Amino acid sequence: MQVRVRFAPSPTGYLHIGGARTALYNWLWARKNNGVFVLRIEDTDLERSTEEAVQQILDGLTWLGLEWDEGPYFQTANAAKHLETANRLLETGHAYRCFCTKEELDVQREAAEAARIAYTYDGRCRRLPAEEIHRKMEAGVPYVIRFATPRDPTAAVAFDDLVYGRVEKRCLDIEDFVIVRSDGRPLYILCNAVDDEQDRITHVIRGADGIANTPKQILIYQALGIKPPVFAHMPLTLDSKRTKLSKRRHGEVVTLAYYRERGFLPWALCNFMALLGWSSPDGREFFTREELIEAFDLSRINRANSVFNYVPGDEKNWTDPKALHFNATYIRTMPMDELLPYVKAELMDAGLWRDSFEGERREWFSRTVDLIRARYHTLKEFSTRGRCYFSDDFTFDDEAVKKNLLKHPSLRELLPELADRLAKLAVFDHESTEDAFRSFAEEKGIKAGIVINGTRTAVSGTSVGPGLFEMLEVLGQDRVVERLRKAPALIPAN
Predict the structure, then answer these.
(1) For residue 482, how far is the Cα from the chain centroid?
(2) Other CB atoms closer than 10 Å to residue 378's CB: what's the count?
(3) Which residues are paired to 206 by β-bridges?
(4) Cys-Cys with 71: which of 39, 94, 153, 276 at CB 3.0–4.6 Å?
(5) Which residues are catalytic?
(6) CATH number of 335-382, picked from 1.10.8, 3.20.170, 1.10.3470, 1.10.357
């Protein structure tokens, strides 16, 4: 039997990083088994579902590279089948009409609270005579449709979860739950079961918060004579205080779009998310797409909740430090032909891209990116920290100017003089520039570090980066000379 899985998000807001992880696990299982990955949009919440949210889901999955094989299917498009199924359950006695008003239900709930017991609907409408049901319907009394949970004291619902093992619940502990609202709209508990059967879903891989609904769905499957899919519930992802991640509490950092905007590589994020609840047998952490597909197995999903180490207000670690480490590692080590298109896109967004970077300066562009990528954590840094390589319009770090330029006023005269010497070099490379710097410092009777650090800040605006002479070589002779000649503007005369 072919493996068929589905990712079924609700388009009522942003695509959560936890939802993206669910999509990833389903996609991996489908690819692992040469199966089918179905995308279903559960848009039954008409008041909150939006086209914008749907597009965010599609864009997010596309960006991550989690291509779907079927869909997107929209749950509302199958509404007729959902209602037809509800009526079938009515006809077979597996469901009934409940005419209880909100006020009547509130009385039941308050009585349960007073007795300090968990509230469950008492099933009074389940016992209504057919004549009374007919009379109420003729009178237009509103009703919901409830599933008639078996009331045999020995009855239970059991299933073998691929993560949590055997799960069993007594039917007496499951109330007669609503499957169709009073306005005639089916609830997701029914819709999911119907759609999973229609889409021939073999495995339902979702968050552990879905376990509570699984016995109810299995009851629906059984009532319809359908074999339930195999369930695998993933542990939740919590913050360092063991609180469930949410945009309300944690802000944009839990949204997938945030990582795209802040310069994450899509596969680096996938690799990080894969380890939020799953581990390989050998403890390995970095995988190519093909390697992760090969290694992934549902049996390796952990039961314990995973932790997303995010501390609000930490500007350096604006997300989980491990996520930043993964992204930096991929930027530093991935093949240049794979990285360059991402850098190009970032420079285009920042208005720094030049067509010559793919033309006569193609080799220079590749060399420059290769030189500076080792220190960057995100793609965004190519257009911010790396701006001086691609534009003459860059900012100067105040601390770097204070430390490397203002602290040595003599550089006001020395740097333009050094510029003149560099301009005369017949060859402008690592060796020739280093020789020029050291002989210049010796001639002037100053430490080489003073002129080296001063030059770094004058030509790049900062005090950190790759080796100075490698930097000067990629910046080029003309650009370095021009920037050194402008350096006195940064050092006010006494």
Answers:
(1) 44
(2) 21
(3) 233
(4) 39
(5) 247
(6) 1.10.8
